[in-house]
């Protein structure tokens, strides 16, 4: 995310949150269209390498859980500019007003409402962008919140009690209580996506546009229509629905194989105008193929695996610079607490402790990631200094120790048989396996992991070996990241889609946070990106406090609680990618929120 917090939601990112992978090229001609090399000031084209085995698959500026990833969000935001672009595009995380439709946000003195001002902006068809376009998004999300990937019960849009239009360029959103203004701006208001009501407020291609969104029934029908249209990837460049845009770019082509071509929006009237006319986003399936494209000069902005850092000098000799892209993210492997076979085991804290103590993050960071990852022991990013991380998380409550992990299991009714732990002491007493764990249950768990990344494969193999030392059998299945996401959703034990046990989609970070790292989408009960259905009433209270308190103490308490309670398997957080950038390409910072911002890219020589 993927998950990234997309605007992950961000950020899955996930917009997000945001879900991402590191990566590699589609063989044949599909990975290298566009110009062969773009290294001069007169060039109007750039070729950007998308992560390996990743195909962009969503354009609508509202995300569902299976479409949470930062690349989808970055493309969408280049076409439909966010109301409030809160990102790290300038090198520090904050409000990027050049690429925002809003120019101001004034909070009331009691922090219970905000009044937002729109700039003098227009859609590409010449119509003015107004408060009505924001209300359109607001109404759709209100009526369809359960299908919105960024939804967490009690948070937006639940805590937005009213939307009041003042005039065409001013509106007020009222909250149900006072909130931390930093959190509200960076994490909630930044998710609002202004959409063309005069084009999209209908229920069929031939239907008339009206005020359907202003009733719950109408809003649901419009939502269904737009989401169904967004599933038709082959129509992104031709369907009139997607031609009315507000951002610096518009879609020139969008292949189901993953290649996307953006071209400058000639009608754009904002402050973040595109510096390079044509942007080719190229898909790859293997790192080797992507690196071959770099060596051939057909990629201007690409990447290498951390394991290939020793080749830095060869890329410099070919006219590239190597720039690590660090991220404000965490990496983890979600448990499916409702899986009928292993869910009862995962619900036992001692079992999760044994699993976590079998993960050697220090060695994984050093060997698998070649020193470009940092150990992470809780829900707050540790790759960058911040005041949000608790001492408990920093100090690692569960250091790597497979002997201690094995003893923890044997102390709770498990016996090693043929190399695998088996529950021989069922029950819920102190020295028993725990409620719901049947006698004879084998400690065998399986991960559905992203394919296409050697780094991921190496990490899974290393985990398999260390788990075996504890007596835990660890099976590995792989699939493209979009497939992993679609198969790893929230479920109940009686559903056919609840067969997944563990999921992994984060070689370059599982979740990219907005500026304020609260966990409402990820770990709150019912959170839109709480894939494994983790639920803890005390943690829910702490998460709620992080959104209302102006003190960092609330975030630190949350950090400490989840470092100890282990809602997921914490894993090393790597750099988003090791970028390889053609000399002369500049004008931008690599956004720690994992978005890319093509309008900022420019040829400087």
UniProtKB/TrEMBL annotation:
The keyword Signal applies. It comes from the Bacteria. GO terms for molecular function: peptide transmembrane transporter activity. Residues 100-528 form the Solute-binding protein family domain. Keywords: Signal, Transport. SUPFAM superfamilies: Periplasmic binding protein-like II. Coiled coil: none annotated. The keyword tRNA processing does not apply. Belongs to the bacterial solute-binding protein 5 family. This is Peptide ABC transporter substrate-binding protein. It comes from Streptomyces nodosus.
């Amino acid at each position: 995310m993927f998950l990234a917090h997309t605007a992950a939601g961000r950020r899955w990112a996930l917009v997000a949150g945001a879900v991402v992978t590191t990566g590699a090229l589609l063989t044949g001609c599909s990975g290298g269209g566009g110009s062969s090399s773009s290294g001069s000031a007169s060039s109007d084209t750039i070729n950007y390498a998308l992560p390996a085995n990743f195909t962009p698959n969503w354009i609508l500026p509202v995300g569902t859980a299976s479409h949470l990833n930062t690349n989808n969000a970055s493309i969408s935001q280049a076409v439909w500019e966010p109301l409030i672009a809160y990102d790290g595009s300038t090198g520090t995380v904050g409000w990027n007003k050049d690429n925002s439709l809003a120019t101001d946000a004034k909070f009331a003195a009691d922090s219970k409402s905000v009044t937002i001002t729109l700039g003098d902006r227009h859609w590409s068809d010449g119509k003015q962008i107004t408060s009505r376009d924001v209300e359109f998004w607001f109404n759709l999300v209100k009526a369809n919140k359960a299908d919105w990937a960024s939804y967490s019960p009690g948070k937006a849009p639940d805590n937005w009690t009213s939307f009041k239009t003042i005039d065409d360029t001013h509106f007020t959103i009222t909250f149900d209580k006072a909130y931390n203004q930093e959190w509200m701006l960076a994490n909630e208001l930044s998710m609002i996506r202004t959409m063309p009501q005069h084009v999209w407020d209908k229920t069929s291609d031939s239907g008339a546009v009206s005020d359907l969104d202003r009733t719950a029934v109408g809003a649901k029908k419009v939502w269904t229509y737009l989401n169904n249209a967004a599933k038709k990837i082959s129509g992104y460049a031709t369907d009139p629905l997607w031609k009315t845009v507000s951002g610096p770019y518009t879609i020139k082509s969008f292949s189901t194989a993953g290649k996307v071509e953006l071209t400058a929006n000639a009608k754009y009237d904002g402050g973040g105008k595109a510096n390079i006319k044509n942007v080719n986003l190229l898909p790859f399936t293997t790192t080797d193929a992507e690196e071959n494209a770099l060596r051939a000069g057909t990629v201007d902005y690409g990447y290498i695996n951390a394991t290939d850092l020793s080749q830095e000098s060869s890329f410099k000799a070919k006219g590239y610079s190597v720039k690590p892209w660090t991220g404000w993210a965490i990496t983890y492997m979600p448990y499916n607490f409702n899986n009928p076979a292993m869910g009862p085991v995962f619900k036992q804290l001692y079992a999760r402790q044994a699993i976590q103590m079998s993960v050697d993050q220090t060695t994984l960071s050093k060997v698998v990631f070649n020193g470009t990852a940092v150990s992470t022991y809780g829900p707050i990013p540790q790759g960058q200094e911040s005041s949000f991380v608790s001492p408990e998380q920093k100090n690692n409550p569960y250091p790597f120790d497979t002997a201690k992990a094995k003893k923890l299991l044997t102390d709770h009714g498990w016996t090693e048989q043929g190399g695998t732990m088996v529950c021989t002491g069922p029950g819920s007493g102190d020295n028993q396996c725990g409620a719901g764990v049947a006698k004879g249950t084998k400690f065998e768990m399986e991960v559905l992991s992203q394919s296409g990344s050697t780094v991921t494969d190496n990490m899974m193999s290393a985990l398999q070996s260390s788990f075996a030392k504890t007596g835990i059998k660890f099976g590995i299945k792989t699939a493209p990241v979009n497939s992993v996401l679609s198969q790893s959703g929230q479920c109940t034990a009686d559903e056919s889609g609840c067969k997944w046990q563990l999921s992994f989609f984060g070689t370059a970070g599982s979740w990219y946070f907005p500026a304020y790292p609260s966990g409402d989408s990820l770990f709150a009960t019912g959170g839109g990106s709480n894939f494994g259905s983790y639920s803890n009433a005390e943690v829910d209270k702490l998460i709620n406090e992080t959104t209302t308190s102006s003190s960092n103490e609330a975030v630190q308490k949350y950090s400490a609680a989840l470092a100890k309670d282990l809602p997921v398997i914490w894993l090393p957080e790597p750099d988003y990618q090791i970028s390889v950038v053609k000399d002369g390409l500049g004008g931008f910072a690599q956004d720690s929120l994992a978005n890319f911002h093509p309008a900022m890219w420019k040829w400087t020589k």
